[in-house]
TrEMBL record:
Name under which the protein is recorded: Glycosyl transferase family 1 domain-containing protein
Domain Glycosyl transferase family: 261-381
Database matches in InterPro entries: Glyco_trans_1 (IPR001296)
The organism of origin for this protein: Rhodopseudomonas pseudopalustris
Coiled-coil portions: none
Molecular function terms, GO-annotated: glycosyltransferase activity
Residues covered by region (Disordered): 1-20
TM helices/strands, residue ranges: none
Lineage: Bacteria, Pseudomonadati, Pseudomonadota, Alphaproteobacteria, Hyphomicrobiales
């Protein structure tokens, strides 16, 4: 596996042919489905990769999306631009309304109808797309590569991708952000999702020519899974994600944050779910508030509700003890997020398991010290400049937070070390590294067509 370094990466010969011939198809189906502007971590990665790759290798890059009616990938003129729009809070669920009990059934019926329609229309549309309609993706050039960088575990038609590789000679590369559902399934809502993700994991190890892992920890998880399931068909390469936020220098303060709260606060940025261990932060801030801790900063939780968060968020919303010391911001666009990073005292990330831990590297990129867990990829993201603690050790987190509050000089020393030593990977650098491994895949012999 190759590590990201600060040294320039080798570039292939810059010939006229290499500049003018498109060979990379990037699937932006996740962005296409989310044109309403709902932003999350996976969307941010797909959008950032699309933007950075466009700037680096525009003549060689084309965008596509999966069309469920055609059961194939179709070209797009451009990648959908969501413009860094904010994450939206999940709609409130009615627990006592009888109608809510039939919603899952309605969704199943709707999916069944859609599947039937697609099955009936697919053969005709496939013929159209191969003749005078939309062109087929793949097969025109032996160098062609399909890059999957979005929610590959939920919407990718594995059979369609396998058909492209076998019948058209297209090489397939997929970005793998984590293997958590098969490594720690207890953090997910139901067995259906874990089963679905296991099918994706099987696709990665059996059908992909290249798996692009975002951390050494995730690479180890992929290899461990592959060893238990017959080995890895293709290669695996490491490409670290960028940690720079595209936002104006000034940013914008969230309106939900009062003047008093904005004077001194800390942040924890992530979707609110059981795996992220926000319960620890809630109980920690409740204890510190009860004890009348001097100069206690406001705890700002930034992220939309997810699995396992309803009880916690209900407690936070109704707890009189923490009414003024904890704030939940379910919506935060890039400008607001940048303002929060720039003005916070420090950041917190007590997650049990991560594929990388982007909030840790983003915190360091803004020059802010982060207290994070010591599990999975988080020490890797911390780059030796963050504090790492056992996510189950409440006493250790309490002491570490109190040390930072009581000793501002210590916090200043941490920030000075970050400014001096941290070298964040930008999205431009990430795209440079990504282009390098994709070019190597493109130059490899094509899979034989059946």
């Amino acid at each position: 596996m190759t590590k990201v370094t600060d040294t320039p990466l080798a570039q292939p010969p810059d010939t006229q042919a290499s500049r003018s011939q498109p060979w990379l198809w990037m699937d932006v189906s996740t962005s296409f489905r989310s044109r309403s502007g709902q932003m999350n971590g996976t969307l941010r990665v797909e959008q950032s990769m699309a933007t950075a790759l466009s700037e680096l290798m525009a003549p060689q890059l084309r965008f596509c999306r999966y069309d469920p009616l055609r059961r194939d990938y179709v070209p797009l003129a451009n990648a959908p631009d969501l413009g860094g729009k904010p994450v939206a809070a999940a709609p409130k669920q009615k627990r006592t309304t009888p109608l809510s009990s039939i919603k899952p059934l309605g969704k199943k019926i709707e999916r069944a109808i859609r599947t039937s329609v697609r099955s009936a229309a697919a053969p005709l549309l496939q013929k159209i797309s191969g003749s005078n309609g939309l062109p087929l993706i793949g097969g025109a050039d032996s160098r062609e590569v399909l890059l999957l960088a979005g929610e590959n575990w939920s919407r990718v038609d594995y059979a369609a991708v396998a058909r492209m590789r076998r019948e058209r000679g297209t090489k397939v590369a997929a970005v793998c952000q984590d293997f958590i559902p098969v490594m720690a399934p207890q953090f997910f809502a139901d067995g259906d999702f874990v089963t679905m993700f296991d099918a994706y994991a099987q696709f990665l190890i059996r059908e992909c020519d290249l798996i692009i892992s975002i951390s050494q920890s995730t690479s180890a998880d992929v290899m461990a899974y592959a060893q238990r399931h017959g080995g890895l068909r293709g290669a695996i390469e490491l490409v670290h994600l960028g940690a720079d936020l595209a936002a104006p220098e000034a940013g914008r303060r969230p309106q939900a944050l009062s003047d008093a709260q904005a004077k001194r606060f800390v942040i924890s940025v992530s979707s609110i779910q059981s795996r992220k261990n926000f319960d620890l932060l809630y109980h920690l801030w409740r204890r510190l508030t009860e004890q009348g801790t001097p100069d206690l900063p406001t705890l700002v939780l930034v992220g939309q509700p997810g699995f396992g968060s309803s009880d916690l968020l209900w407690q936070i919303a109704h707890d009189p003890v923490t009414a003024s010391s904890i704030v939940h911001l379910p919506r935060a666009g890039d400008e607001e997020l940048a303002w929060l990073y720039r003005h916070c005292a420090f950041t917190l990330y007590p997650s049990f398991y991560e594929g990388w831990g982007l909030p840790v590297s983003e915190s360091l990129a803004f020059g802010k010290y982060c207290l994070a867990s010591n599990t999975s990829s988080l020490p890797e993201a911390g780059a030796g400049l963050a504090g790492h603690l056992d996510p189950l050790d409440f006493a250790a987190w309490r002491e570490a937070v109190l040390d930072l509050i009581r000793a501002p000089d210590q916090l200043a020393q941490h920030e000075a070390a970050i400014r001096q030593n941290y070298r964040p990977v930008t999205w431009a650098q990430s795209a440079h590294r990504l282009a390098e491994v994709l070019r190597s895949l493109s130059a490899a012999p094509a899979a034989s067509k059946s």
